[in-house]
Amino acid sequence: MSITTLSTTPQQLPRVDDCGSSPVVALDREEAERRAALLKALADPVRLQLLSIISASPNREACVCDMTEAVPVSQPTVSHHLKTLVDAGILTRERRGTWAWFRLDAARLDAIRGFLA
Amino acid sequence: MSITTLSTTPQQLPRVDDCGSSPVVALDREEAERRAALLKALADPVRLQLLSIISASPNREACVCDMTEAVPVSQPTVSHHLKTLVDAGILTRERRGTWAWFRLDAARLDAIRGFLA
DNA sequence: TCTCAATGTTGACACACGTCGATACAACTG
DNA sequence: CAGTTGTATCGACGTGTGTCAACATTGAGA
């Protein structure tokens, strides 16, 4: 997956009544929407903070109780953001007794980095 | 810049009345907002399509006239999206006579990829 | 089973965002 | 200078999103 699309048309000489560009094929609409959905899940300061906490924690996993303390929003809002990230496939949730633990999905993050190349 | 933050606390043994995690420092709020703003500029299917067109064009630059044809929205909407990307520093605009040309800012894209590492 | 603590869900609100038609601006051409 | 074409801005509308208080749910342990 790459944000770039191969050009299929050779370069043309500019004409006076034309900007002289060579039209190329845009990224497929459905793929663009999939990628936008992933980026949208990342595009929030609170969610970036939550991800940084998980990423910096031992075993790269974190409990909700730690995250609510480290972020300037209420507990329901933290839960909402975590759900957003889980739904996007960026985090996985695991319940251990009373506490809920979250881990990063490395493959999903690789994919995101990949289509920004 | 990295999404990860170094852990400054050693791992603890779990206790019964505690989830047993080691609290870590979250990403700085201001930095999180800067990164979120950049990601938000990318997190739209139309803008991803526009970027793909520019990236795939000869000399990695594209004219508005080509983009309006390749994307399923009106010309004012294309102009709006391009302004969003320029404001975010992801694109640069250059006027050549009647036409407006846009190029990617490679450093800005590198930075975005960087803090997803 | 009952209670308590941790977590998730719901409903409501304010605000941001994508979209378009109408219009304004800019630059080439006659 | 006037007309034409490409591009940008404005105003308005509907939708999406972040937030919280209130409530529901889950699981541990007495």
UniProtKB/TrEMBL annotation, chains A, B:
<dbReference type="InterPro" id="IPR001845">
    <property type="entry name" value="HTH_ArsR_DNA-bd_dom"/>
</dbReference>
<feature type="region of interest" description="Disordered">
    <location>
        <begin position="1"/>
        <end position="20"/>
    </location>
</feature>
<dbReference type="GO" id="GO:0003677">
    <property type="term" value="F:DNA binding"/>
</dbReference>
<dbReference type="InterPro" id="IPR036390">
    <property type="entry name" value="WH_DNA-bd_sf"/>
</dbReference>
<keyword id="KW-0805">Transcription regulation</keyword>
<dbReference type="InterPro" id="IPR036388">
    <property type="entry name" value="WH-like_DNA-bd_sf"/>
</dbReference>
<dbReference type="InterPro" id="IPR018334">
    <property type="entry name" value="ArsR_HTH"/>
</dbReference>
<dbReference type="InterPro" id="IPR011991">
    <property type="entry name" value="ArsR-like_HTH"/>
</dbReference>
<dbReference type="GO" id="GO:0003700">
    <property type="term" value="F:DNA-binding transcription factor activity"/>
</dbReference>
<dbReference type="Pfam" id="PF01022">
    <property type="entry name" value="HTH_5"/>
</dbReference>
<protein>
    <submittedName>
        <fullName>ArsR family transcriptional regulator</fullName>
    </submittedName>
</protein>
<feature type="compositionally biased region" description="Polar residues">
    <location>
        <begin position="1"/>
        <end position="12"/>
    </location>
</feature>
<keyword id="KW-0238">DNA-binding</keyword>
<dbReference type="InterPro" id="IPR051081">
    <property type="entry name" value="HTH_MetalResp_TranReg"/>
</dbReference>
<keyword id="KW-0804">Transcription</keyword>
<feature type="domain" description="HTH arsR-type">
    <location>
        <begin position="27"/>
        <end position="117"/>
    </location>
</feature>
